[in-house]
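Hi Q.,

Before the meeting this afternoon, I wanted you to have the zinc ion prediction in hand. No need to reply - just skim if you have a minute. The sequence and ligand are here:
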Amino acid sequence: MHEWGYCEGILEAVQRRAAGRRVKRARVRVGVLHRLNQNALQQAFALAASGSEAQDAILDLAFVPARWRCHLCQEESEGADIPLVCSNCGGMEIEMSGGDEIILESVEYALEPTKSDMK
Ligand SMILES: [Zn+2]
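Predicted structure with the ligand bound:
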């Protein structure tokens, strides 16, 4: 399961932003080229985050399509993959312009228990 390689970095970013606050949900923008699976990543993350402030946090993945541009005809497109040749002119001078990012977009925090809850 290659999601393992990702959850440590994501957890680190979440913890850095949370700074000790209890995390309820984290939203991560992920380029499709990473080929991550939402369920597998959630499972791996749950294990990695166990015992931390992100324990039981829900990981929301927002998939970002792969984007590319052809240098020959200036065609721009996006999809699940970067093609080997331009789908418009067949040229091979294709430049990738997105789809490989991983960005922690937002973190939602759980409410701290109030004093009356701690009896
Ligand atoms: Zn082209």
